[in-house]
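Lab notebook, bench 4. The sequencing result for the construct came back, and we need a structural model before the next group meeting so we can plan mutations. Quick request posted to the team channel:

Model the 3D structure of this chain.
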Amino acid sequence: MAKRKRLSPAAALGDPGALPATAPEAAATGGALPRRVAPIADVAAGAASAAALDEMAERWDAAREEGRLVLELPLEQIELQHIQRDRMGEDPEEAEALRESLRRRGQQTPIEVVALPGRAGYGLLSGWRRCQALKALREETGEARFGTVLALLRRPEDAPSAYLAMIEENEIRASLSHYERARIVVLAAERGIFADEKAALAALFASVPRARRSKIGSFVGIVRALDRALRFPEALSERAGLELAQQLRDRPGLARQIAAALAEAPPEDAAAERRVLMQCLEPKAPEPVADPEKQTQTRPTEPKSPPETLAEWPGLTLRRRGARLELDGPEADAALGSDLAAWLAVRMAQ
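Done. Here's the predicted structure in token form:
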């Protein structure tokens, strides 16, 4: 039985150097076996490689656009005010702690950005504190490593998604005051991102408990009334803010009163501003309502003066206090009053 010729693995895979030569080819080369090219195999292999590279490039681009790829971007290409920030300031101690962490360990958590159409830059969605800390470190040290920032490229479908991304990041990483939360609700509504403040509150804080969302809604009234007047609004405690919100609803002129008081004596810190607010919130006695009928019957108030004793009898004393005469003592009874009234009637008739 004839044995079958076994092909080497290379020949089986189409290696041109392992393919057998035909008889005419062997005769033409003096018996030497020339290397034979397999064009179909080469084309197939090239096509497979190109397809693999294209697929890898597509996956790379998709990962980049979907925010699954960390980019290293120049810090100056980040527009920090791409959207209205909810955070109004930062705690000095927390800012120093963040700078120290970046100095020792570098940036551990990427920021989130969105590409700006038609511009070679990126708008910041979340990570404002990290960008500020890197900027401060670059100015302080001059080191190139603080001139770039690690970022994830996001593609929010619309502006509400961008605001929601910012708020979710800050809710997780750094607690915002109720005032700051309410302020971003007002600003998002004013810019037309949402139909109104109610819609903005429901969308931006959908994941927080209803009780907290209600409190944020109360602070919205403070933002509308006093945002331009308050200098340290983020320091308002929850209790003080809720009381202020209630007073603003009950007393229409209170906002103007507070604004005038703060303008007259601008507070230097949050404690001073709180004192001014508390003074304005103190309840005041209601002013009497003018009644024309009563005004005609009311005698002017006489200034108080020490009484002058005009005469004294057993059980009776006559005193004068300003323009008023007083009879005092056990004998000043109803009978004496009747006799005195009769005498005065005769005297006044003369």
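Residues 73 and 149 are 5 Å apart (CA to CA).
Will bring this to the meeting.
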